[in-house]
Amino acid sequence: MMTPKDSPGVSGGSHHLVIGLVNNMPDGALRATERQFRGLLHAASHNLSISLRYFSLPGVPRGPQADAYIHQCYENVDQLWLNQLDGLIVTGTEPHAPVLQDEPYWPALRDLIDQVNTHAIPTIWSCLAAHAAVLRTDGIPRRPLRDKLCGVFECERVGDHEILADGPLRWRVPHSRQNELPEEELLSRGYLVLSRSPQVGADIFVREDRTLFIFLQGHLEYHPEALFLEYRRDVRRFLTGERSNYPAMPIGYFDSNAAAALGAFQAQAINHRSSEAFLQFPEMATGAEWAWRGLAVRLYSNWLSYILGLPDRPDLRPIA
């Protein structure tokens, strides 16, 4: 298998790549997710020419404004197969059903996974999308966690693969999910686990048959403020009665001053629960370092090198 160092690399700018993004993130994170992946691919490309095309998946719950925006700026996922992409990124979304097959978007997501397997498109599956792809491809169901896993966790590299070439041995990465994939079942079905931690289990893992699939249970694309915005959203939902319990603070994320201010607000909000109380929610710098940025850029740079090194790819368009 070609390594990134043997490939044409991503520094020459001699080709143009088209990457698809199936953005399933909730309405409030829709445009932020675009910016996160656009910035990450730009940083990883080293001036390689890249086009990012946005695709929407039918069945993902949307409000009127987000629906209108998607109608204007996104392509339907059916259009994905009309012009072959060089690579694909599929994001997760908030789970609402205990079983993935009961989600309203499952038929469309199931068909997307089947088509990606058929066309052998190099794909990065993120969070819930990783759970769905593993379920559909190998029948491994996700496992619910007792409490939502949310925070920034240190993970250790435990496997070797070109996608982590020149990467560190340890890193901190955001996770935000309510389910997990059993590591022992992944290993038994031929997946290669590249990083893990006792708290998060499998972090990054891969499967390479006809092409390379990369699975991320964490969120390497997140900007430092992303978990703060999720936490603030969930606090608002508690105060407006959309959820019954006050959300736990992300682990390993806030500095001591921020944690103290947010803890004081929590005590007040629980005693005086109302939508008006949200007006007093502390707006602050998160205190979180962008500790995972270097690894994220390295992984995506290696992924672009992998795509450039694939033989017999008529869809790689040389630039005159």
Write the layout of secondary structure elements.
Elements: E1 15-22, H1 30-45, E2 49-56, H2 64-73, E3 75-76, E4 87-90, H3 106-119, E5 123-126, H4 128-138, E6 143-157, E7 170-180, H5 183-188, E8 192-197, E9 201-208, E10 212-216, H6 226-239, H7 256-271, H8 293-308, E11 317-318
Parallel strand pairs: 1-2, 1-4, 2-3, 4-5, 5-10
Antiparallel strand pairs: 1-11, 6-7, 6-8, 8-9, 9-10
Task: Tell me what you see in this structure.
By secondary structure, the protein is of the alpha/beta class. Residues 1-9 and 312-320 have low confidence and may be disordered. It is 32% helix and 23% strand. The chain has helices spanning 30-45, 64-73, 106-119, 128-138, 183-188, 226-239, 256-271, 293-308; strands at 15-22, 49-56, 75-76, 87-90, 123-126, 143-157, 170-180, 192-197, 201-208, 212-216, 317-318. Helix 1 crosses helix 8 (293-308) and helix 3 (106-119) packs across helix 4 (128-138). Strands 1, 2, 3, 4, 5, 6, 7, 8, 9, 10 and 11 form an eleven-stranded mixed sheet that branches.
Structural key phrases:
Rossmann fold, 23% strand, alpha/beta, eleven-stranded mixed β-sheet, 320 residues, 8 helices, 2 domains, disordered C terminus, disordered N terminus, single chain
What's the CATH H-level superfamily name of the largest domain? Answer: Class I glutamine amidotransferase (GATase) domain
Total discrete domains = 2
CATH topology of the largest domain: Rossmann fold
Q: What is the percentage of strand-forming residues?
A: 15-25%
Low-confidence stretches: 1-9, 312-320
Order of helices and strands: EHEHEEHEHEEHEEEHHHE
